[in-house]
C-alpha cells in the first residue's frame, strides 16, 4: 500500500480501492469532455508557463486572445527577457493584476541568466522564479515534464472540499487539501490528471449550480451524497471592500497635448501610465482635490473645467470611483515628484503607453468627445 493511498484514506475517509477508480473515471471523462485550449497538446514549458500565469485570477475565455497576442509578440523566453518592460505591460494591458506581467519579465531574465534560456525542470528552481507558486509550478511541471506534482487552485479546492464534505472554509484546511490533491494525483499521467481536475471545476463542479448529474466523481462525492454540494465549500465571513473616491485630471496644454505620468515600478499597477490625481479628503470638493493633488504630485497650477466621466472600478481588496475632469495647465513646469516619469502626449499617441483598465475608459470618453466635435 503506497503512502499516497494511506493519506487519501485517512483524510478523505475513502476506501483505498476508490483512489484508483477515481483516477480512472476522471481520466475517462476528460478524454471525452476536455476543452480544446491553445496551450494543450504541447510539452513546451514556455507557452504552458505563460498560460498558467495568465489563468491566475482570470477566466479562460478572457485569456485566450491575450495568450495568442503575447506569443506573437514574445515567441520565446529570450524575446521576452530582452523586451522593454513598457512593451510587456502594453501587450498585457487590460488583463489586470499587472504584477504577473512584471514577474514574467523578471523570470525570463532570470532563466536566461541562470539556466541558459532553458526553463528549469526542478521544482525548487521553478518555485524560485518570480511569480510562481506551488500550484503554478505543479501545472507547468506536470504538463511540460509529466512530473507528479499536484495543484491546488480555486477549482481544485472547490472539488476537493465537496468530495470530502469539508466542514471548514478551504483556507482553514490548506495543508489537508494539498495532501488530498497529492494523494489523488495519477502518478502515470499527472499532467492530464491535473488538466482534468481544472476542467472538472470549470465545467461541472462550478461555484454555483454544480452539474452533479454529469460528474464522473458523483458516487465518490460526500457533499453530493449528503445533498449539500451547492452549499460547499464553506465561505469565510466577508467584510465590505474599502471605497476610495479619486479626483482625476486630464490636463491640457496650449498645444492640445495631455499630461500623463508613469507610476513607480513597485506596488499596485506598477510601471503603468495614468492620468494624475488622488484621493478626495473629507469636506474637500472634487476641484479642490484635483488642484491640490496636481500641485503636490507635479508642482504646477491648473484650472479645473468640465467633468469628463465618472468611472467605478473594483480591485481585489478595494474599489474606486474616479471623478475625471478636463483641466488646463496655467503655470509651472511639470515635475515627476511622486511618479517615475511624465510626458505630454496627444490623444492619437496615447495608445503607445500601457494604462490600467479604469484609465482606458477615460481615454474612450475623450475620443468620443473628440468625435462629437
Count of discrete structural domains: 2
Low-confidence stretches: 1-13
The rounded Rg comes to 25 Å
Biggest β-sheet, characterized?
4 strands, mixed
State the shape. elongated
Please give the alpha-carbon distance between the first and last residues. Answer: 77 Å
Provide the CATH top-level class of the largest domain.
Mainly Alpha
Q: How many runs of DSSP E, i.e. beta strands?
A: 7
Mean pLDDT across all amino acids: 92
**What class, by secondary structure content?**
alpha+beta
Strand order of the largest sheet: 4-1-6-5
**Helical region count?**
15
Oligomer: single chain
Please name the CATH architecture of the largest domain. Answer: Orthogonal Bundle
The share of residues in helices is 40-55%
What is the H level of CATH, i.e. the homologous superfamily of the largest domain? Hypothetical protein, domain 2
Strand content: 5-15%
CATH level-3 fold name of the largest domain = Endonuclease III, domain 1
* Elements, N to C (H/E): HHHHHHHHHHHHHEEEEHEEEH
